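Figure 3 (text version): structure tokens given as input.
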């Protein structure tokens, strides 16, 4: 079995006017990504996602990697990822390169799973069949949506955990978290995401002000590049600190782990190097006694990949005697790249998200929908 053809497909969807959503860093007025479609000589099709500016990474994938991927045996995905660092040399560790590699790697694993009739999670070593989705919600919006609205919607849909955006000032942080906790109830898990909008001392003060609300973790309290600041926050506060969505290589994640800069590693499968690198990061986290919870703000393909990966994540050291659920991020904002690309969309409601048991990514792509959002 070998890859006969590779196609990088840039996708984009513009949000309605004045309906942008985002964080303390600003709002997004469109959703975009790049899908990778690989086809083997015997007609199998594998899908992956490179989660980055669409046309940019699509061009890079075709120009830099098409010749290397054609003729490749999908079982050699790990070799391909390893060589992407050495062949690139000057730019192999760069963000866009890692995103392109991620999409190709995911598609290769999808092909392997389909060729042997098994889901990727089984190839990685599946440890669970059900995940606990958390509502990634409470965004900063162009229309100044009250935090009450998305929290009530999450409760109505049966979510038992949620994450909200903060980082616009300590008083505003307190008010948003207080309201969210009141609506979710004391038993729900509540996380907060600063999106790197504070300096270390600001973040420490903000987290300390939120102690009474029993926050599950604080995400990106400082900028991703400020590893020293992350470590200072982690060492100072009693709440777990999470980061990783803006880190792109095994080398960056290794520094986070070695310096004990975070408690929770959050690789995005469409950025970190796909399944191959994510599996290595899970092993790294286990050796450092850290938690791994994937970051997921992707299209349906990236969501499917993250689910398959999450199903394989070890829960060391307390997998048996402390039944901690594996929390899985489920974006609740409007995004047809997530909701419309599958023949059978995911259903994260009622507190559970089943891991697809079909081969490969376990999902069927609606190729007509892909064409609707294509922006070549």
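Below: residues designed for each position.
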């Amino acid at each position: 079995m070998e890859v006969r053809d590779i196609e990088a497909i840039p996708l984009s969807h513009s949000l309605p006017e004045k309906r942008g959503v985002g964080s303390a860093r600003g709002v997004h007025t469109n959703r975009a990504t790049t899908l990778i479609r690989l086809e083997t000589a015997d007609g199998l099709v594998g899908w992956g996602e490179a989660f980055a500016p669409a046309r940019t990474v699509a061009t890079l994938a075709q120009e830099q990697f098409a010749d290397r991927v054609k003729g490749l045996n999908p079982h050699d995905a790990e070799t391909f990822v390893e060589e992407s660092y050495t062949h690139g040399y000057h730019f192999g560790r760069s963000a866009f390169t890692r995103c392109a590699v991620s999409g190709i790697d995911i598609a290769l694993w999808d092909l392997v799973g389909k060729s042997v009739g098994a889901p990727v999670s089984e190839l990685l070593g599946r440890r669970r069949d059900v995940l606990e989705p958390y509502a990634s919600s409470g965004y900063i919006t162009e229309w100044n949506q009250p935090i009450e609205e998305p929290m009530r919607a999450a409760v109505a849909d049966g979510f038992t955990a949620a994450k909200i955006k903060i980082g616009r000032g300590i008083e505003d942080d307190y008010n948003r978290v207080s309201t969210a906790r009141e609506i979710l109830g004391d038993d729900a898990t509540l996380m907060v995401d600063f999106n790197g909008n504070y300096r270390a001392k600001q973040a420490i003060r903000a987290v300390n002000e939120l102690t009474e609300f029993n926050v599950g973790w604080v995400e990106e309290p400082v900028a991703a590049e400020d590893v020293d600041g992350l470590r200072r926050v982690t060492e100072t506060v009693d709440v777990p600190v999470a980061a990783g969505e803006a880190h792109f290589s095994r080398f960056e994640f290794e520094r986070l782990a070695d310096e004990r800069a975070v408690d929770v590693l959050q690789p995005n499968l469409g950025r970190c190097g796909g399944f191959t690198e994510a599996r290595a990061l899970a092993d790294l986290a286990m050796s450092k006694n850290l938690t791994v919870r994937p970051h997921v703000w992707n299209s349906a393909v990236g969501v499917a990949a993250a689910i398959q990966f999450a199903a394989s994540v070890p829960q060391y050291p307390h997998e048996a005697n402390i039944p901690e659920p594996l929390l899985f991020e489920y974006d609740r904002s409007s995004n047809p790249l997530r909701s419309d690309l599958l023949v059978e969309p995911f259903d994260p409601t009622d507190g559970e998200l089943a891991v697809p048991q079909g081969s490969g990514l376990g999902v069927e792509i609606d190729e007509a929908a892909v064409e609707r959002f294509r922006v070549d």
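Residues 121-354 form a domain with the TIM Barrel fold (CATH 3.20.20.120).
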